[in-house]
Design a protein that fits this description.
The protein is built from 18 helices and twelve strands. By secondary structure, it is an alpha/beta fold.
């Protein structure tokens, strides 16, 4: 069975970069009738917060990315300790005590000599007496996995055939000096224990994948199918990392972006398929193909989400916005007619309010000086309220007959007098909804 996972750290809010990873893994699981696991990487007790864990779940629920089960890494510390013991038994785990300053000096020296800046494994040459002395002086050291200096090969689901020389990579730290278990080993143990078959994540994890493959093999696990999607950039190709805080999913939700608009965009951006609004999650699942994604950085522009949001709302019937209309106080008997008028003239749900305000309270008239006398006379011919579906045609016909005006010169000043706007819904449909006309006084 296909089993995928999304493993965010509950140290902040989800952003569009996180969503790309979550969505790819979700779609793969659903397309193959498999299982999607939400796994909270909460091994950092200081930075991990329950409110962030709750927010992650809320964001995924808003998008309709339903998980089959939730796992927390903080509840699996005993398993990580067992894995660490096994690595020690097979001589693939060793303790090292270098300070950050010492490591930095080593890297600079290696770079000056034209060598790759990787850890030199000096800790492996320490005698037991030297280890005891360092432990007495500095306390517990970090624990590093001893890589086998051979090439690490795999066929990536997006990048194709990958081959990395392990000698060009530092032995990864798996446990910090304070005992905190790091992602690299926790993820390996979890993926093995939970039967994860496919792992999709950002291309910044390629080196992690290489080292994790060796850890998986050392622990006797099965290597999942790995795929690494390109990273998002801004619309001009600029780094998006500094803006991710403003691209939190909760902010997009607050700004009125519709879930299916966001999902439709994220499920195609960076692929060879056109970005098209989908009407359901089932459509997204059916059309998803990981092999169609490219390797180049993918440009993301938040403004692209709003035309899709508008298109989605234009296609919705009144039941989909009933809660919004109720909250605004739109009478039940007017909701059908009002929504038919409003939906073609909004970008997000937030825009519905301005149209109901217009209908309920009327609009400040916008009258050009040269049209003031014309509009004043036209208002004397305005039918009595409440307006009907024929009120606009009756009024404009009467004004045309009296003034001789026609076309734009007739309709535009009258529209602006009633709505305060040059453009908007069909006036024949809008007028029956108007409760007040300010221009009439």
């Amino acid at each position: 069975m296909t089993v995928t996972r999304f493993a965010p750290s509950p140290t902040g809010y989800l952003h569009v970069g996180n969503l790309r990873t979550a969505l790819f893994n979700y779609l793969i699981a659903r397309k193959n009738g498999g299982e999607f696991v939400l796994r909270l990487d909460d091994t950092d007790p200081e930075r991990s917060k329950p409110e962030y864990a709750d927010a992650i779940k809320q964001d995924l629920e808003w998008l309709g990315l339903e998980w089959d089960r939730v796992e927390t890494q903080s509840s699996r510390l005993d398993r990580y300790a067992e894995a660490a013991d096994k690595l020690r038994e097979i001589n693939r785990f060793y303790e090292a005590w270098e300070t950050p300053v010492e490591l930095d000096l080593k890297r600079k020296k290696q770079l000056n000599m034209g060598k790759p800046p990787v850890y030199d494994r000096a800790a492996l040459d320490l005698s037991e007496a030297e280890k005891d002395a360092l432990k007495a002086e500095r306390g517990s050291g970090v624990w590093r996995f001893k890589l086998d200096h051979a090439r690490i090969n795999w066929t990536d689901g997006i990048l194709g055939d990958i081959s990395i020389d392990a000698a060009s990579v530092s032995d990864p730290v798996l446990i910090r000096g304070d005992g905190q278990v790091l992602y690299t080993i926790a993820s390996v143990v979890d993926d093995t224990d939970m039967g994860i078959t496919h792992v999709v994540r950002g291309s910044d994890h390629v080196t992690n994948t290489a080292t994790q493959i060796q850890i998986i093999e050392a622990l006797g696990g099965t290597v999942p199918n790995f795929a690494h999607h390109s990273l998002l950039t801004g619309p001009q190709g600029e780094a998006l990392s500094k803006r991710l805080g403003t691209l939190a999913l909760r902010d997009l939700r607050e700004n009125g972006v519709e879930p299916l608009a966001l999902l439709s965009h994220m499920a195609r951006i960076g692929s060879s398929d056109p970005i098209e609004l989908r009407s359901s999650m089932e459509e997204l699942v059916e059309g998803f193909d990981l092999s169609r994604f490219g390797t180049a950085p993918t440009k993301f522009d938040v403004d692209d989400l709003y035309p899709l949001t508008a298109k989605h709302l234009h296609a919705q019937d009144v039941d989909a916005v009933a809660a919004d209309l109720d909250a605004l106080g739109v009478p039940a008997e007017l909701q059908d007619a009002f929504w038919n008028v409003a939906r073609e003239n909004i970008t997000t749900r937030h825009d519905i309010a301005q149209w109901w305000t217009l209908c309920r309270d009327g609009a400040e008239p916008d009258i050009d000086p040269e049209d003031a006398e014309f509009v004043s006379e036209a208002l004397t011919l305005l039918p009595e309220m409440p307006f009907t579906e024929t009120s606009w045609s009756e009024w404009t016909s009467a004004v045309k007959e009296k003034s001789g005006r026609k076309g734009r010169a007739l309709f535009m000043p009258l529209r602006k007098a009633l709505t305060g706007m040059q453009h908007g819904p069909d006036m024949g449909q809008l007028m029956p909804l108007l409760q007040t006309v300010r221009a009439k006084g």
